[in-house]
Design brief:
This protein has a single domain, classed as Calycin beta-barrel core domain (Lipocalin), CATH 2.40.128. The protein has an eight-stranded antiparallel β-barrel with strand order 1-2-3-4-5-6-7-8. It is globular and about 50 Å long. The protein is an alpha+beta fold. The protein is built from three helices and nine strands.
Length: about 180
């Protein structure tokens, strides 16, 4: 009798207990040539390595004869007595079979993290990047601002994808008074 009950409980738990573990859907494809260039962080789930940052950007560059992109993340770290430009470089590797919508990002060897492109404007003016476990999230734009309507639309879309929108914080892009 116990094996029978157990055989019923496992599928039920897989269905009802899945929560965030449901697969995170990406966009159908990404043209990496259009994706290259500078992106401004509009909002994100705060991360330890971004603490005290403002004016955060991510720049994607092609690397000739390589199967990865160069990623240059910059921000102004606010510290007592002023601010300091922080630069972190990484490599982004397209995952085969996902039309460039999934990447593996490597800040230091041998570790790579998942980078899923889950929303992308047709004109590549904004992008939302997430993580399959919904631990990380970034709203990026080609401009240092995003309209209220676009932001609200993206918040609703990521909410429907299982993200906890209460963790989302707008990023400061006012860089004049360093």
């Amino acid at each position: 009798m116990k094996p029978f009950v157990l055989s019923l409980m496992i599928p039920a738990c897989m269905f009802f207990c899945s929560g965030k573990s449901q697969e995170l859907e990406t966009v159908s494809s990404v043209d990496l040539e259009k994706y290259l260039g500078l992106w401004y962080e509009i909002a994100s789930f705060p991360t330890r390595f971004q603490k005290g940052c403002r004016c955060s950007t991510a720049e994607y560059q092609s690397v000739p004869n390589r199967e990865h992109l160069l990623v240059i993340n910059k921000c102004l770290k606010i510290k007592p007595g002023g601010s300091k430009l922080t630069v972190k470089k990484a490599k982004a590797f397209p995952v085969k079979g996902y039309n460039n919508a999934r990447l593996k990002v490597q800040f230091f060897w041998p570790f790579k993290g998942d980078y899923y492109i889950i929303e992308l404007a047709d004109d590549y003016s904004f992008v939302v990047v997430g993580h399959p476990e919904r631990n990380y999230l970034w709203f990026l734009s080609r401009e240092p601002y995003m309209t209220t309507d676009t932001y609200a639309m993206l918040v609703e879309r990521i909410k429907s994808k299982g993200y906890d929108i209460t963790r989302l914080q707008k990023s400061m892009q006012n860089c004049e008074d360093k």
